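Your task
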Amino acid sequence: MAQHSTDSHAHGEDHAHGSLKSYIIGFILSIILTIIPLVVVMNHMFKAGPTILIVMITAVLQFVVQLFFFMHVRDRTGNQPRWNVMALIFGLAIVLVVVSGSVWIMAYNGVGY
């Protein structure tokens, strides 16, 4: 009787997963990037402008940490092109254009009145 294996490695697929070390590093970075804006906002350390800037910068860094340490965006198997990275960059470009265009329109909509 032939045995059927449901293991993905038996079928020649190579799914890369992060090591325990990379997960711990990602977790610690996520905690730090969560605590920094929390402390800045709760203690009123800066005025509104710098506080918003700090929150936005840590949010972007948190996004990058999540992508690389937990979602394995940089991982690829074999010689496959990095379609997921290209799709991510394209999506971010679309979001940037839509958000910046919306802010531009809202900021300059009432100038001539």
